[in-house]
Amino acid sequence: MVEKRIQPLARDAMAYVLAGGRGSRLKELTDRRAKPAVYFGGKSRIIDFALSNALNSGIRRIGVATQYKAHSLIRHMQRGWNFLRPERNESFDILPASQRVSETQWYEGTADAVYQNIDIIEDYGVEYMVILAGDHVYKMDYEWMLQQHVDSGADVTIGVLEVPRMEAVGFGVMHVDKADRIIDFVEKPANPPSIPDKPDFALASMGIYVFHTKFLIDALRRDAADPNSSKDFGKDIIPYIVKNGKAVAHRFGQSCVRSDFEHEPYWRDVGTIEAYWQANIDLTAIVPELDIYDKSWPIWTYAEILPPAKFVHDDEDRRGSATSSVVAGDCIISGATLHKSLLFTGVRANSYSKLEGAVVLPSVKVGRRAQLKNVVIDHGVVIPEGLVVGEDPELDAKRFRRTESGICLITQPMIDKLDL
């Protein structure tokens, strides 16, 4: 790998995070919040990964486009990301869909969400734009991607993942030549094109794009003038450049940030209940695939001032204990037993209750003698005394949102409907 330039390109770049999507596959978890605002990893939100990657890469100008049920997301960013200072040539702009172009027009697509804020982008006068999705979990140094973009002379550089070929059917797939120049872009193909040097693998788009700013603005204006365009990067902007310009793939393995404990590049789209549950539970492993304890690449977030976690009672059948679990601050485990579970801040687990494979969002109260296995519990839910989940699949499916593999999502409206 080539050495970084003495003058990082990130200093002259702006990160623009697309965070307006609902994430409907997360079902009731996104009834009150956009997918990027969903909690992850004990104290963070999903969007913190893209924002932290930008900050840790050296990018000091950041914009976030919001749209769907954005209050929770905006409040989180106002509280946790207000440390960037204009007097240090830094900026953090929250850009809700506010009908700035037309009184009847919200953001109509990912490209339109950038196009409507061109004047703000131009005011900063940055040389490069890094367009990011705000709903994936990964650690990446964007400086390497910026350098490849400049060195290759590309019109657009696209972040890609190497995935087993037939697992790429749900992605936008890049067909590249031996130099990683993209010669075709196929959306969710039935027969994905393989990588020239790895025939059993395909290159899936990560939704990360690097442009020279002037080129991007010209492309957005051209696309906005096309009445047949859906105003989307993946459907319109990128295919046009692949056909008429130079598009180059950047492989995630070249810029993935890994600590000494991470052996493989880690990237997750936690867009389903099962994937969300699994990625959180994975953090309870002795050596998890994602190292959130790596101080050299911190995941910045809103850090509440909270008391430490507390475990009380030490009787034979009433012992506050946790094994293979992650427990955040302000949790009180009062005579409850946890195994392979992840608890966010402010959870109260009361006596004789047992949690196994539980992802418990902030401020949940678990009643006495509750038995909960393989669950995701939404923010603020009050679990009734003696509730059992994870033993009777048919009953669970009637009461809660149950996946095929048996993960149950529990929300307060579901609890309120129970006849106990």
Automatic annotation (TrEMBL):
UniProt record, GO biological process: glycogen biosynthetic process
Highest taxon listed in the record's lineage: Bacteria
UniProt enzyme class: transferase
InterPro entries noted in UniProt: ADP-Glc_PPase, ADP_Glu_pyroP_CS, GlgC_bac, GlmU/GlgC-like_hexapep, NTP_transferase_dom, Nucleotide-diphossugar_trans, Trimer_LpxA-like_sf
Gene3D superfamilies the UniProt entry points to: Hexapeptide repeat proteins, Spore Coat Polysaccharide Biosynthesis Protein SpsA, Chain A
Entry keyword annotation includes Metal-binding: no
GO molecular function terms listed in the Swiss-Prot or TrEMBL record: ATP binding; glucose-1-phosphate adenylyltransferase activity
Record EC number: 2.7.7.27
Keywords linked to the UniProt accession: ATP-binding, Carbohydrate metabolism, Glycogen biosynthesis, Glycogen metabolism, Nucleotide-binding, Nucleotidyltransferase, Transferase
Catalytic reactions on record: alpha-D-glucose 1-phosphate + ATP + H(+) = ADP-alpha-D-glucose + diphosphate
Residues the UniProt record annotates as site (Could play a key role in the communication between the regulatory and the substrate sites): Q67, W106
Binding site for alpha-D-glucose 1-phosphate: Y107, G172, E187, K188, S205
Pathway this chain belongs to: Glycan biosynthesis; glycogen biosynthesis
Domain Nucleotidyl transferase: 16-284
Segments forming domain Glucose-1-phosphate adenylyltransferase/Bifunctional protein GlmU-like C-terminal hexapeptide: 307-410
HAMAP family to which the protein is assigned, alphabetical: GlgC (MF_00624)
Function per UniProt: Involved in the biosynthesis of ADP-glucose, a building block required for the elongation reactions to produce glycogen. Catalyzes the reaction between ATP and alpha-D-glucose 1-phosphate (G1P) to produce pyrophosphate and ADP-Glc.
Subunit-level organization: Homotetramer.
PANTHER family for this protein: GLUCOSE-1-PHOSPHATE ADENYLYLTRANSFERASE (PTHR43523:SF2), GLUCOSE-1-PHOSPHATE ADENYLYLTRANSFERASE-RELATED (PTHR43523)
Family classification: Belongs to the bacterial/plant glucose-1-phosphate adenylyltransferase family.
Name of the protein: Glucose-1-phosphate adenylyltransferase
Organism of origin: Rhizobium mongolense
